[in-house]
Amino acid sequence: MENQKPLQNGNNVAGDDRRRVGDGSALIFLGTGCSSAVPNAMCLIQPSDPPCHVCSQSLSIPPEHNPNYRCNTSLLIDYCSTNGMHNYIIIDVGKTFKEQVLRWFTFHKIPRIDSIVLTHEHADAVLGLDDIRVVQPHSPTNDIDPTAIYLTQYAMDSVAAKFPYLVQKKLREGQEVRRVAQLDWRIIEEDYDKPFVASGLKFVPLPVMHGEDYICLGFLFGEKSKVAYISDVSRFPSNTEYVISKSGSGQLDLLIVDCLYKKGSHNVHLCLPQTLDALKRICPKRALLIGMTHDFDQHKDNKVLMEWSEREGIHVQLARDGLKVPIDL
């Protein structure tokens, strides 16, 4: 990734045309916040004295100009294959999905979704599934090609209970047709030895602990540049860490990883001290942090992280909603 174009964000990137000759692959951060997103609603309805600096900004700065405004974590992969065709793969569709579409699909000129990959079945990863229909062709009879969606059997069982109308195969007798998202459910394994291909891009599942009672998936993808996306993790099993570490299967070009709070620890997420410790063990060339609460101020904390980066030799920064990272996959 040393020869990649510099990182770009939603305020200074010209909208890219997917048909433009030479326009390559890119990662677009649709959301970089925690499950409750930022601003934290409690900070606004019951403000502290003095008010929370990060959350109070949301009342004075438009979200598209506010790097501390964070929707649920979600990544869009704009994958340009060797034939120059673009496919659009999204990882997770949480509670803020429609807002992300309106803000960042329009800005970055994303015309559709070709595939969906789910890390797990918690609300901040799946509650936007109903809104997938807003990015599908309109058909009052649901007569459209379904969007492929990749998930574990455990997640499938949970999603089927939450959204039975999205998984039923045919209407019951007398049941009226209602327009809903059309999805092609495809089961994957929680096993890094069992990769799958979504819209031409190979993904290696990376099982991690999201609390000691729950397995969540991260994903490794990219051949020319190796990228790992791990949004919800409290501990890396040794086998998973080996797959993504410099001292194991090979150095990552980019690690995108969970970081909930600035201080202390949490039972189901990494916080900054644990995240930085993990970075020193895994040793990627570059890291971008996601899943942040209102603890983090983009401007101040990225300066601190830059100083850490210079000491440790690993470039790390907070990601932000709308950030676009051109990358050769």
From TrEMBL:
Residues 88-291 form the Metallo-beta-lactamase domain. InterPro entries: Metallo-B-lactamas (IPR001279), RibonucZ/Hydroxyglut_hydro (IPR036866). It comes from Gossypium raimondii (Peruvian cotton). It comes from the Eukaryota. CDD domains: metallo-hydrolase-like_MBL-fold. This is Metallo-beta-lactamase domain-containing protein. Signal peptide: none annotated.
